[in-house]
Amino acid sequence: MVLWTILGIIVAYLVGSISTSTIVVRLVAGKDIRQHGSGNAGATNTLRMLGTAWGIIVLIIDGIKGMVALWIVYGMTGGNSVALALSSIAVVLGHNWPIFFGFRGGKGIATTIGVLLWLAPIMTIIAGVICIVVIALTRYVSLGSLILSVLIPILLAIWAPSHSAALWASVVLALLSIYRHRENIGRLIRGKERKLFDKKSDEF
Length: 204
Hints:
By secondary structure, the protein is an all-alpha fold. It is 73% helix and 0% strand. The chain has helices at residues 2-16, 20-29, 43-50, 52-77, 81-96, 109-119, 121-138, 141-159, 164-180, 182-190.
């Protein structure tokens, strides 16, 4: 089981390293998304570069990517909860630091949603609804993303503490999200964070 768990973690990381936004923007616009806009290889920057439809497509694929990785690991390990929890972290690490794209990736929110929908679907849906409301009211994607990431482990700790593997995995993923959004947090505090659909400072 240990060997299969290790192999599962490696597979999950490699699946995560398939940077959807980098591939899509390169195919559609012939550009490197990491050299434009915010420089982040994710759905929000894709939306700003290619429009809402492409941003949503990237968001969905990145979420599915997380679920596919866990589906593979589930088959490899017979659904071992520890293997799935470790692999959920590995696939997000792959998205954030993809080996196929010079270790320059995104912030992992869509992929985090994907793996947590697998590990804790009800809590993820609740947090996701709150995230959408926050983004709709403030137009700060980063704020909604941070609230989602932090809220899921809190909900798990309150209502499903017995799911220990999912709980500690969600804590690690929340910490990863905070780290990847550290610059956004600084801009939010200073009132300088760019809002969704605000293109006035973008140069693509």
